[in-house]
Write a structure and sequence with these properties.
By secondary structure, the chain is α+β, with helices and mostly antiparallel strands. Helices cover 21% and strands 32% of the residues. The chain contains 3 helices and 7 strands.
Length: 154
């Protein structure tokens, strides 16, 4: 595996820390990431997304969905079934923890568990203060009126 040093990138940029952090995260989990459980990420609307995770064999009580510091953490732990004796065990119900990094202003709106699938709905809600707004440009006539009023006062 290749190792990259992003220290020069941190020194030469201002405000791009998220990009460098993302690159560090991708390289750190490149070969160590587990593929269990499988999941899909779909875009359901312009600012809406859904994460679907295959969680066959887990009940609602076994699953935990948590949002912490711009990260969505989905984990599951199956209660011990020491009294069962399997002849063949092909359904993996091993404990897992799956992390998803959430972009700024993305919030989890709902989670549902049906037919062995855990669905988590997310929406990107940009505050009004951060949305682009159009600034009205004053014409020459408006500026001259203000100047005349100032001269009349003095």
């Amino acid at each position: 595996m290749r190792s990259f040093d992003f220290a020069p990138l941190y020194r030469a940029t201002v405000g791009f820390d998220q990009i460098a952090d993302l690159m560090d995260r991708v390289l750190a989990t490149e070969n160590t990431g587990s593929s269990y459980p499988p999941y899909n990420i779909e875009k359901t609307d312009d600012d809406a997304y859904r994460i679907s995770i295959a969680v066959a064999g887990f009940s609602d009580a076994d699953l935990n969905v948590e949002v912490r510091e711009n990260a969505l953490i989905v984990s599951a732990k199956k209660a011990d079934e020491a009294d069962r004796k399997y002849l063949h065990r092909g359904i993996a119900t091993r404990a897992f923890e799956r992390r998803f990094h959430l972009a700024d202003h993305v919030v989890v709106t709902a989670a549902s568990h049906t037919d062995g699938m855990l669905h988590i709905d997310l929406v990107k809600e940009v505050p009004d203060a951060l949305k682009p707004r159009r600034i009205q440009i004053a014409g020459q006539a408006a500026i001259e009126t203000d100047v005349v009023d100032a001269k009349a006062v003095n």
